[in-house]
Amino acid sequence: MIEIQATGDGGPTLPALPPLHALRAFHAAARFGRFKDAAEALGLSESAISHQIKKLEAYLGTRLFERDGRTLVLSAHGRHYYERIDPAFSQIRQATEAMTRPSGQVALTLTKSLASLWLIPRLGQLERAVPEITLQLVATSRLVDLAREQIDLGIRYGCAPWPGVEAEHLFHEEAFPVCRPGYMTTSASADIAASLASYRLIVYMADEWHEWVSARGQTLPDGMPTLKIDSHQDGMEAAAEGLGLAIGCRPLVDRYLEDGRLVAPFGACHRSGYAYSLIRPAGRELTLAAKKVARWIRETARHQTGPLG
Fold it and tell me: 119: which DSSP letter?
């Protein structure tokens, strides 16, 4: 059977589309799970989001959300509709990025400490390896939504997996005591309590010293003098000034060890249980420029000085 659709003026017609503002509001609300977050992301009011979704529901003839107390839940139809339109939004976003972003620009996110202590000292190597690349660094301690914020790559600390990203292992973190050369006037021994008894501990994370000592089957002596600081880098600087013993974490402490500002009196072979991973938005193809940066990061991680593994 052939169906012939006539038009009033004989001209071409386009398939009907839902109201696009309403569609965008629904997609944001479904993605974030709250009208408030969708409103903030789109720069609208909550009432505007609610109005647009009601408009789309009227157009489609079905409810897209159900209220479960104060929680917003997709209806069965809403969930099915979101799953069908989400890839289209992703394709539009990628196409727009490709049109508007300079061809050689790559956005990379990582923590401030990793940026200052590991990446920035190696940026010259990256520029020599891929001189055509413009790198945009997003150094932050918050958990970045790569897809929403249009970030190509990230180096994330912790334990994978994470939702919404594809991750590959770069290197394990090692944590061990460090101090200024000559700070410890007695030799470090297997008796942790005796070795540490006469010295001050620099503390960044509350349990880091207890974890290191417990990993050796011993107990940290009570009543030891401590100096509390706010960041790993501040702890390394304090230790380099001879203010105490700090827990250094590789790869962040490597520069201090390499230039002799710090030494590891107990050795440097304790894995903390955490690692660094190279991440990218799930399901999104990297640009050629981002692939080159990712390759450089992998190769640099493999050639880390010492047994990072």
Answer: I
